[in-house]
Write a structure and sequence with these properties.
about 140 residues; alpha+beta; three-stranded antiparallel beta sheet; about 20% strand; globular
Length: about 140
């Protein structure tokens, strides 16, 4: 009986971990937080939606439009969430992108983005340039 109880607890923990996996609210791809290339969009009702990369973030913001309270990017250096509209981005560095295309990593400070760009290549963009490049003006 004790072994059965322990096994049931183990299975419940496993199921919880598997189903707790974060997925992109748009494409359903696993959000790999270790890559630090994802975005978090919070709606006015407080619900958080994750986007696996900037492409999905742009489409999500288009779909949600007026329901968005905040859009945050992950600072590549610290892993902290930062205001996506105040961030500086490096696009096309040697960092492997989440999906096809060019990688996009965000930084809270322009100096950090420039230092990263010198070491890893790519182009430094402001948030306005980043989202205009993606065909989206906020």
């Amino acid at each position: 009986m004790k072994k059965l109880f322990v096994m049931v607890i183990f299975v419940m923990m496993f199921v919880t971990v598997v189903f707790a996996e974060e997925k992109c609210s748009l494409c359903g791809m696993k959000v790999d937080e270790a890559k630090r290339q994802h975005f978090v969009i919070t709606t006015k009702d407080g619900k958080k939606q994750k986007a696996c990369n900037e492409g999905c973030a742009v489409i999500l913001t288009e779909n949600l439009k007026k329901d968005i309270r905040t859009m945050e990017a992950v600072d590549y250096n610290t892993g902290s969430l930062i205001d996506a509209h105040k961030a500086f981005y490096v696009k096309g560095s040697d960092v492997k992108p989440v999906m096809g295309g060019k990688s996009v990593v965000a930084f809270s400070k322009k100096e950090d983005a420039e230092k990263f760009q010198k070491e890893h290549g790519g182009k430094v963009l402001t948030a306005d340039e980043m989202f205009k490049v993606e065909g989206h003006e906020h």
